[in-house]
Amino acid sequence: MSVKRAFVCLILLFSLVPCSQAQWFGKKAEAGKLTGQAYNAKKHFKVAKSFLKQNQNFTAACHIVDAMDVKPRSKYMKTLGPIAEKAYEEKLKLSYGYMEQNNYREALTHYRQLEAYLNGLKRFNMNNFATIDMANAIRLASTGVAEEAYQKAERFYKDRAWHDAVTQYREAGRYAENYKDSRDKIASCFYNQGHDNLTESRYRDAAASYVLAHKEVEGYRDAVGRATEIYFRMGQYYLDEKYPRAAWHAFNEALNLTANYKNAVDERDKAFKQASLILGFGTFENKTHNNVGGIAVGDFIFQELNAKLDGRKSRFLQLTNDLSTAQIVANGLVTQVFAKTSGPMSQQKYEIMKWSQPVEYYEGDKKKTRYVPREETIHYNEKTMTREVVFAGTVNLTNKQTREVVFSDQLSDRANDEARWAELLTNSTNLEHMSGHLKALTQASNQLRGEDEMIKQVIGRITDGLASRLLETIDNAPEPSEPRELDLQFDTNIAGP
User: Fold this and answer.
1) Fewest CB within 10 A of the end CB: N or C in the chain?
2) Residue 302 domain-assigned?
């Protein structure tokens, strides 16, 4: 039965059908959703009356429902009662007209608005007239939209416009779940895109397309086998071309698709061994013999660096304290480290406090208040202490076998802290009139941050930057170019679309 004929039958078979149980659009927390206007109840009702004068019953009824949702009143219900069914019939006729014109998308929009309206009536027990089965009406219109999208997809498919075809097949599925063979057609698009990519030697794209076909329809044709073979041969190519990291990733992709594929496990292990680099931490010598805050600065730097590298490095960089297994060894030298505390330095200052003081007096028997200007000078000592922590040093990474320095960096940073406070020298009962600045000074702490806290802050910043620069140098492999030709050995021949 066609969409149009089914709808005609639907109209003829009117019956009392319960409205949808879904929450309607005009609930209190989302007032005005039927009309899209966030008016108050009075404004909604006023607008509704203007639409009634124009015989636009549906729009008027929606405004009244929104008004009732904001503030239910008997006056609104009395106005809505006589037009509730007229509004329904008006909107239904409009929706049917779009169905007759095969404008299913527009019809669907109006059916959904009508459904929301009926749900609004149900909320106030005013759905006391016969309605069509709205779920079926929406389903018919949705099917019409899905069919339009499907036919567009078929045309794109015929023209081998795979991306556009997938978009339209998905659009069909959005309006009607699993519409016709849309899922299979989407898988076919990806599969055939893989074929086109292979023809143009875009091997990585081809493998990705085959994987998408499999994800869309599990086990689709031989998509998994093709993707696996492509990744395996790419791994071999990168291994031969001395790109072991890229080889490892390609073999790993193959094994993720097909466990124990050919000798991919052994090849992946070989690639990992070639790609791996073991960084060992030697000594960070402190020739200054100064340690700040009781912290062994040199040891602490490597501890922090180790922790930060461990959280950012690739799987191919291994960290160790066993220098016998290391390929690259890190050593450092502290050239400057100290903490300097100055103060407290004191400076005597004063502030003139000014305010108006209320004074009561009598004029005859009547009590009055006048404000008399007052001022008082308050003296205080403003005290200041400062602390500075400074660090400087170098770090070098050396290839243990060739003795070549592969990385070198200069390190330096500092941290400063200041404590500033005030000690009052004047006894006064009017301190509430102090300026905000002086109040803050009298309440300020006279304690500096500890030396250990400050040196940790300095080393934290140093090792953050050092870890990033180090990884860019020794844990970063160049991206290889795409293979120009691979000796692919598929179990089946590539089939056309």
Assistant:
1) N
2) yes
Domain co-membership, 463 together with 315: yes
Domain count, the chain: 3
Q: What does pLDDT average to over the chain?
A: 90
Which tens digits make up the pLDDT trace of 436-461?
999 999 999 999 999 999 999 999 99
Output the domain CATH number for residue 238. Answer: 1.25.40
Q: Are both 263 and 202 inside the same structural domain?
A: yes
Q: Which segment of 335-344, 398-407, 482-491 scores lowest on mean pLDDT?
A: 482-491
pLDDT in tens, 207-255: 999 999 999 999 999 999 999 999 999 999 999 999 999 999 999 999 9
> Residue written as tokens 């008082």?
376
pLDDT at 492: 62
- In the predicted model, is pLDDT for residue 2 greater than 80? no
Q: Are residues 387 and 285 in the same domain?
A: yes
Range 169-174 average pLDDT: 96
Q: Which of 252, 275, 298 is the last residue of a domain?
A: 275
Q: What is the residue range of 200's domain?
A: 181-275
Higher pLDDT, 26 or 437: 437
In a domain? residue 128? yes
Domain end residue (candidates: 242, 275, 308): 275
| pLDDT interval class at 45 (50, 70, 90) | very high
33 and 105 inside one domain: yes
Same domain for 16 and 129, yes or no, is yes
Q: What is the pTM of this model?
A: 0.76
Q: Are residues 293 and 421 in the same domain?
A: yes
Asked if residue 161 is part of any domain, the answer here is no
